[in-house]
Amino acid sequence: MTSPQSFALVFGAQFAAFGAMMPFLPAILAEGGLGASEVGLVLAAGSLVRLVAAPLSGRLADAVPDMRRLLAIAALLAAAAALGFGLAAGLALLLAVQVLHSIAAAPIVPLSDALAVGAVRRGGFDYARVRSMGSITFMIGALVAGLAAEWAGPRIAAWMLAAGLLLTAWAALRLPKPPGREAGAAPSASLWAPLAEPGFLWLLPLAALIQGSHAVYYGFSTLHWQAAGLSTGFIGLLWALGVLAEIVLFLWGRPVVERLGVQGLALLAAGAGVLRWTVTAVTVEPAVLVVVNLLHGLTFGAMHLSAMRALVTLPAALSGRAQTLLASAVSASTGGLMWASGWLYGAAGGLAFLAMAGLCLVALLLALRPFPAPGPEAPRSAPDHPSAA
Q: Would you give the distance in Å from CA 293 to the centre of its chain?
């Protein structure tokens, strides 16, 4: 199996799992007896746990001789914890399951991206095209889970999550081994070393604000649309359509991505967020929701590609820590906003999305700052390299 194929399998397996679970975790929690504020608390706890777990795993990843094994172990443990979502009920048990699963799952996406960015840095493949496999399987997972939940209830998503993570663990061990690692090697700098990089500091608040602005969507869109009378199958379709737009950007958006660069992509993501969340706040009209959910390709997809293009300009020795610190910043933002949105949604319903539009407006203003040029140790041509898309 070639390097692009093996990375496509890793991304495909994990995002099929997350695609099945993400739309229906709030419904699982509600079925387990939790109210809106308790759902927000449990979702926020997961994000805040990842805030601590991810950077610690990043430091370890930059020290161990083989990052693939750490990824496989994390996926196995996360699969075991995921079974609890299919069995537990009540706040105490579901909160415990969420914490355990979040600790194990925290490194999965950032370590996968760190391994992929390393391969991109060595000229291995086009990141955006390979990463699109994750978006494709996320869409399929959301669709299948939506249909399955119609006849089996939302907890079936938990079993799909566990199965996808088991496949991720197997696929991680089939990735090409990163070169240049020696057994027992220690990190070259502290856990916080990426914060000394101007490009990383430019990226951090933008990713936290724009990706964090998805908190109400991730936490309460399913419940909001169910309350409006939309079927779970249609809700799964809405999630899938959003990811379909992301896939289009990843597969065929290279000319636009290269033209916009790191800063332009961030500006596009922020502007799309202002529009998307404002419209979502004021309507549950199915035809409008279909159109506006396509903006997910920009609010998530464009910001993600901006981040990857920025991170590939950093020194290779910081790869694991940079990816996991970024994931932690997003988790901190999402976790805090998820907790707040539980109370906000309980009080204001769909108007809670207007607060998310405000976050994107702040990000839009911050993104007007030019992206700093990479330092002398970084590959200066990386942002314009097709593989860095």
A: 17
Asked if residue 184 is part of any domain, the answer here is no
Enumerate residues 6+ apart whose C-beta is below 8 A from 335.
43, 44, 45, 46, 47, 48, 50, 51
pTM over 0.70: yes
Query: In the numeric block, which tokens belong to residue 163?
Result: 């199965």
CATH code, domain with 78: 1.20.1250.20
Q: What is the pLDDT of residues 103-121, one digit of tens each?
A: 999 889 888 988 888 787 7
- Which position has the token pair 């799952």? 105
Closest by CA position to 111, among listed 152, 151, 56, 154: 56
The domain tally of the chain equals 1
Assess if residue 182 is contained within a domain: no
Q: How far apart, in Å, are the Cα atoms of 307 and each of 16, 84, 163, 244, 310?
A: 22, 33, 29, 20, 5
Residue 99's nearest CA partner among 142, 179, 41, 56 is 41
Give a yes or no: residue 68 inside a domain: yes
User: What residues make up the domain containing 260?
Assistant: 3-174+193-388
